[in-house]
Amino acid sequence: MNKKITGFTIIELMIAVAIIGVLSAVAVPAYKSYVLRSKVSEALVMSSKYQSEVSECYQNMASLPDCDALTHGIGENQAGKYGTVSVLDGIITYTFNASGVDDDLNGKTVQFTPNATGANNALNFVCTSNVASDALPNSCTNSSSIVVSSAESANSSSSSSSSSNSDEIPATMPCPTGYTWLRASANQYNNGWPAFGSCAKDSQDGPGMPPIGGCPSGTTWSSATNICAKN
Question: What 3-state class would DSSP assign to 183?
Fold first, then answer.
C-alpha cells in the first residue's frame, strides 16, 4: 500500500514568510536600539563616580573652575571600552571613540554639567548629549536639535541679499556653567577669520570651551586654539 506524500501548500509557505518578515521588521530595530543603549550606559556608569568627586571638590573649594581631573580629589581621565571620560571645570564629558563603536555613536558625547542648587553647596548634574534620543535614558536630554544645520544657514543667508556671512553664525549657543557663547563679529568673519566662536569663560581668565552638544554645523572644535573652527 503506497503512502501519500504531503507537504506545505503555497499559502502556508506565504504565511510563514509573512510572519518572519513582520518579526524581522520589529525585532531588528529593537535590537539595534538595545545595543546602542547598552553602550551609552557605559557613559553613565563611568561618569557617576566623577559626579561624587566633583561634588566633594565643590564643597571644599566653592569654585567649579578649580575642579579638574587629577586635582582636589578628582581622579584622572579614564578610558573605557567605547570611549573616554574627562573632567574640566567640573564638567564631566564622556566622548565615544571616533571609530569602531557604532556609526550612530562614533565621536558623540554625553556631558554632565554641574549646577549649584544653593543649599549647602549641593550640585545638580544636568545630562545633555548629541546621541539619538532613543538611545538615551530619560534623565538625559538630546541637544543636537539646537545646532544650526548648514541647510538652515543657507536659507537664512539667501533670504536677504543685504545680510552678511556672519548671520550664519548662531547668535547664541548653550554653554557650560560659567561660560557664555562669544561668536565672531561680521568684520572678523568677512575678513577670513577661521572661527565661528567659542564658549568663553565669564571671568575671561581661561581657555574657551565647546558648546553643549558640539560646535555649529560646518565647524569643528579645535583644542589647539579653543574655538569652533570652520571646516
Answer: strand
pTM: 0.53
Non-local CB neighbours of 7 within 8 Å, separated by 6+ positions: none
How far apart CA 135 and CA 138 sit, in angstroms, is 10
Give the whole-angstrom CA distance, residue 141 versus residue 160.
Answer: 34
- Of 175, 169, 171, the C-alpha closest to 195 is 169
Q: CA nearest 95: which of 105, 109, 106?
A: 109
- The full set of domains in the chain, from first to last, is 9-142 (3.30.700.10), 144-231 (no CATH)
Q: What's phi and psi for 179, nearest 5 deg?
A: -130, 150
Position 161 pLDDT exceeds 70: no
**pLDDT over threshold 50, residue 187:** no
